[in-house]
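S1.2 Input.
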Amino acid sequence: MNNLKKWKILNSKMVLDERWCQVRQDEIELPNGKIVDDYFVTIKPEVALILPITSNQEIIFVRQYRHAVGDFFIELPAGSFDHTQESAELAAMRELQEETGYSAKQLQKIATLYDKPSKDTNKIHLFLAENVIKSGEQNLDITEEIEVILIPIELVLDKISRGEISVAGTVAALLLGLNFII
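S1.3 Output.
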């Protein structure tokens, strides 16, 4: 029934190999025999994304500037990590603490999604944390300036519909995660 075939890599080379950006150029042979010599793949680290909910049924969001598109976005706390050095669960808890000053005692795995599998290598690990508490101050990276926003759960779907929350990973985590608690 499944007649689909994988592409064959004929040659592969790194064309950009920087700490935060790696790009590989593959020469591939398609199942139909055609050769594509400039198929570019971005090698990205894994991402841990957390849906944190307070005991007051508010979701903790971060609002920050995103340089690639030159605008501010409301997102769930998240960050990249090296899966050979840290588990997705620990990365999610660390990112929650660093970006918001809140902490969670336990996480529930929502899903693991691929970000953009046509061109990117990374996965997004989605977690739910209920009854999170304020436990300290933010500990931000040099490129981060983050405003913490608490939004009641009942307002979130409307904010997605109006485009106020529009980052794909955040929207996916919200839509999947709210099914766990409703």
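S1.4 Remarks. The chain has a mean pLDDT of 94.
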